[in-house]
């Protein structure tokens, strides 16, 4: 299997990540996703 990380964003609507400027959590979720991708790509390059 492929390792995964489940993160819940309580109180948020489906699609809230696309609501930059309107929903404060949108900035945080996009930063979280970017950081996760950065770590994944760094781990892949280290192989």
- Estimate what percentage of residues fall within beta strands: under 5%
Helix coverage percent: 40-55%
Structure classification: mainly alpha
Number of strands: 0
Figure out the total of helices.
1
Radius of gyration: 13 Å
Question: How would you describe the overall organization of this protein?
Answer:
By secondary structure, this protein is mostly helical. The chain has a domain at 16-45. Helix content is 47%, strand content 0%. It contains 1 helix and no strands. It has one helix spanning 24-45. The two termini are 18 Å apart.
Which features characterize this protein?
single chain; 47% helix; mainly alpha; 47 residues
Can you give me a brief rundown of this structure?
This protein has 47 residues and is mostly helical. It is 47% helix and 0% strand. It has a domain at 16-45.
What does the secondary structure layout of this molecule look like, with pairings?
Layout: H1 24-45
